[in-house]
Amino acid sequence: MDSDNLKIQIKTFFGLEEILAAEIKKLGGQNVEVKNRAVNCEGDLGFLYKINYSCRTALKILVPILTFKTWDENRFYDKLFDFPWEDYLRVDQSFAIDSTIYSDRFSHSQFMVQKMKDAIVDYFKFKYNTRPNVDSKNPEIKIHLHIDRELVTISLDSSGDALFKRGYRKTQGEAPINEVLASGMLQLASWDGKGNFLDPMCGSGTLLIEAAMIAMDLPAQIFRKEFGFQNWPNYDAELFSTIKENRIKRIKEFTGKIVGYDIDNVMLDAAGDNIAAAELEEVIEVRKQNFFDSKKELFPLLMVFNPPYDERIEITDEDFYSKIGDTFKKNYPNTLAWMISSDLEAVKKVGLRPSRKIKLFNGKLECRFLQYEMYEGTKKIHKLNNETI
Q1: pTM of the predicted structure, to 2 decimals
Q2: How far apart are CA 3 and CA 194, in angstroms?
Q3: Burial letters 50-86, b for 16+ CB under 10 A, else e
Q4: Any bridge partners for residue 8, and if so which?
Q5: Which residues form the THUMP domain (predicted)?
Q6: Cβ distance 113 to 100 under 8 Å?
Q7: How far apart are alpha carbons 215 and 284 in whole angstroms?
Q8: What is the pLDDT of residues 364-385, one digit of tens each?
Q9: In 3-state terms, what secondary structure has residue 236?
């Protein structure tokens, strides 16, 4: 592996590609290319460590090590058997393979994964008369198999566990939002830590914590204990330590307020647990408050939230979304509010025309991330005329 000129692929969620590309450029990535749910770039080993530690909208970071075309399973096996695996995997290490396959020719993903395992194990047995172990639960080396029709790409997973696992989520709510999606939403909403932030339906606190981490410039993985690249033969512990130290020096004080409301005591307790785990109790305030009975307290204010929608949490109040709109209009003048929902019919009941609409996915649910601008006096409130969300 050429440690000075790595080709890198960074996976993300649909709709966050441009946000991820901006993060990568800011962190020093070269030849940045936006793809579907991914960004490709180039950089050295230090850059690879830096993006794993700091990047907020990355799900996993892969380094391709082998690409070839194949039309049958035997050629696939032969190409893998002929590869110098000891450059990437020691015989005393465990490994696992995950896969993404888009191919009519190789439609059975588990069969291809097994074929690849066989090739790697047979290589070591033939050359060293011993073999590495396969460990699907906690492998030291994670390898990714990608097949697009007949094009095969083998990559090392530099992250290990998926990067949405920040390490602060101790208690989970009924339908928590993914940490990477939460950070992406905040960046789409242009939250930069200037001013104040409100999540009026905060659940277990993910948006609040990610907002605080952005405001203070905390590295996304400041709580993570281990990355996949730390098990690679070329791992440079001193370099990674220097990168972490330099990154931590950039942490800054936040002078605004980050506040979360919820009406559920269980959720408020969960949020409290997670905020404490993130060591942000002095930065984030959560309290029992019905948003529909609330009034604007913070100036200036950005609001971002993930309200219930029936596919996630059952809504028994038919007027729920119209109450959101009423509360916006009556109690939150001169406020920018963003809301994500998959219930596109219910969203029309808000009664305000969104000034921006962004397609995102919350898990498998297709959603819209909607921006509402509330003005006082000077601008007319636009009614929503059953337009397509």
Answers
A1: 0.94
A2: 38
A3: bbbbbbbbbbbbbbbbeeeebeeeeebbebbeebebe
A4: 41
A5: 47-158
A6: no
A7: 11
A8: 999 999 999 998 754 544 444 4
A9: coil
